[in-house]
Amino acid sequence: MATEASSEAVPDAYGRLIEKIQRITNVQNAAGVLGWDQQVMMPDEGTPARSQQLSTLSAISHELLVEDGIGDLLDELDGEELADEQAAVVREVRREYERAARVPTDLVQQISETSSEALPAWKEAKAENDFSTFAPYLETHVELKREYAEHVDPDADPYEVLFADFEPYLPLDQAEEILEEVRETLVPMIAEIRDSETDLATDAFDGTFDEDEQMDLCRDALDALGYPWERGRLDVAPHPFSTGTQFDARVTTRFDESDPLGAVFSTIHEFGHATYTLGLPDEHYGTPLGQSRDLSVHESQSRLWENHVGRSRAFWELFLPTFKSRFPGSEDVTVEEAYEAANQVYEDNLIRVEADELTYHLHILVRFEIERALVSGDLDVEDVPEAWNDAYEEYLGIRPETDSEGCLQDIHWSHGNFGYFPTYSLGSIMAAQLFAAAADDLADLDGSICEGDFDPLREWLVEHVHSHGRRYETNGLVRQATGEDFTADYFVEYVTEKYGDLYDLDSA
Predict the structure, then answer these.
(1) How many CB atoms lie within 10 A of CB 325?
(2) Is 13 inside a domain boundary?
(3) Domain range enclosing 361
């Protein structure tokens, strides 16, 4: 009889847990729509009200998690025999609950308010090239995040705690080991490329390209890739991003009249994020099984579509005619020239989101080191511009002349997102491993891309990554998808072969 009662109690407690988690998710998703609106459509003077709205929703979400009986339900389920998917849901909820329960609601609200107020201050500082406008908000964010980390785990490295907010199941030491292997590969490779006498068609797309036509071109790219407009939209934002759910995943891009490829790749990148979001199971909406597996995996999807698809010869076989139809002045550009222009390694680029596929990771390294120093107290906020410029000179051989093209270029610190940047490089590394596995499983993947048939790749990703939601931890998901542990080997092989061929490198 006791066994029967226990077996009946498990689904009942589990069902009540799911109902509560779905309620929290809906509050968070509502905040996500308000955040999208703030960056895309909100009037410039809407910040005071929006700050209160977002902070209220953040506080409600936190209170629902820690004060609405979820802890009691988790206690009821502790030690019970659960199906694998149920156990995964409980694992994810328990982790979020235990972290949130240690953090006071008023601190959560302060962080949200600071984020809302810091965003317009960052926009103004960037526009006016005035770091001092943004510095007080950055200082506040650093202080609040140190306090947050202290509450979550007073015995841990604060930066490790913050990194775990974005990548909870990939240990920081494992991440650092993988990133170090990539750095050891890229630094000498980039130096060899800069010494190379190979001339690529870097001027293939020189000229002035109307922004309205670029918007149409980006829509063309999304059409070609199969973006479902009935569940998404394309807009413009100062810093491109994607947000939403499996029912509504929106993308944004930005334009530079001298750089049409920048808009195309930004759009494809955000399409990759949206495709992951849209590939999550509809039936599990509102639960961990219907949510993405954290940022390294999310970034792997955007970098896979941007780099392994969008920067491939096969894609330009497909898309170059569309480009030429929008911009007739490019009618003489060949597929090989388009491919070379899309994959050139810049000598003097200061902007991360405009970086080439290789130097991009040195941009990430700069941010990683600076935010670690900020959180640890080894770097004062007022010294960030100089530290940033020094690091760029050391790693990239160039020095920003303004803070707008230096430490003010990214939006992340205005949100207080410390620990986020490493996931960009980790995602690129993971993308290479996933794409290699997909290419092994699918017949003539390049041929499918060239013909505009993206269904095989998308379906492979849905089956091996998207459909699982958060069922697996990060390393387990990679192992399930590829049959191997997460490794930098495939990324190293990919960039060595690709750029060795492009630049005729001796090391290839």
Answers:
(1) 13
(2) yes
(3) 172-503
